[in-house]
Please model this.
Amino acid sequence: MTDKRRRPRSDVAGRPKRNPFNARHLARLRGFAVLVALGDQPAALRACERALADGERRHARHGLAHPEGWLRGRVIHHLGGLPQPLARWLAPSDEAHMIERRATLRALGASDAVIGGLSSLSLLDRGLVVAHEVERLPMEEVQAMLGRDAAGARRRVSRALHGYVRGALKLLEEEPWARREPSGELATRIAMAARHYPGGAEERSR
Model:
């Protein structure tokens, strides 16, 4: 007789039971990672898996007061070696891969202006724009993501938003065809958010 106690628990026949920590955070974290990775889905998934493994260990040992922000910080850490090329602004080395990545971003609602703006940012600043202005994470989570106090986090978000706006405007100036593109939900959200941080460009130089 088979000892049922030795069988792995499963939620679907033949499939291991999902890790509760991963199940709680994976979907949103994957969306964040895909945007920050500029549509590179394999790199985004690898970063998610590593971040979730880090988070599960941390949660088991010490707990996580702000897991959403902490996990996004780990995704950015694991994407640190990600090659940046995506589009004309970033000279792709593989045209087919570039087309696939742009299609992924468009499926998420990103217009060419959004892609241009996000592509112009550093990895960390791109993560800040996506986390705070697209996902609407509260400032406490952004602080956990950065490891800074509220004032420092707001200054860095402000800087990132102004960088995004400059990158998007540069694309619109250099590529007239992009003006015919619909702004997209992401573009609208970020443009509205940028107006709440009027001191970003100046604060960067302080």
